[in-house]
Design goal:
Elements lengths: L1 H20 L6 E12 L3 E12 L5 E3 L2 E7 L2 E8 L3 E3 L3 E12 H5 L1
Antiparallel strand pairs: 1-2, 2-7, 3-6, 4-5
Length: 108
Amino acid sequence: MKHALTVLLLVFATLGSGCSELDPFLPKVTFSNLKVRDINFQEADVDFVFDVDNPNPIGFNLSSFSYALGFEEIQLLAGDNEDGFALEADGNSELILPVDLIFADAWN
């Protein structure tokens, strides 16, 4: 029993230290800019632009994606990107989140 406990602790210690080894391989996302596509008295159509630095030798493509941001069951932002996203392997990619901000919704 004591031997099994020692082996189990050794396995957990090895796995725990392995997570920190993955840090250099996590993609890094930084905010680049905000592009205003259209604005009027009712709404603003904007693009939140992010730079994604992927240190991994593998990339991927999304044909399209949807997203939503909320706080305490109140939806703040939502959108769809029909253009999709291509994460480049060993490089930088631009991620665009198009958002339609309706000013009346901000007061509700």
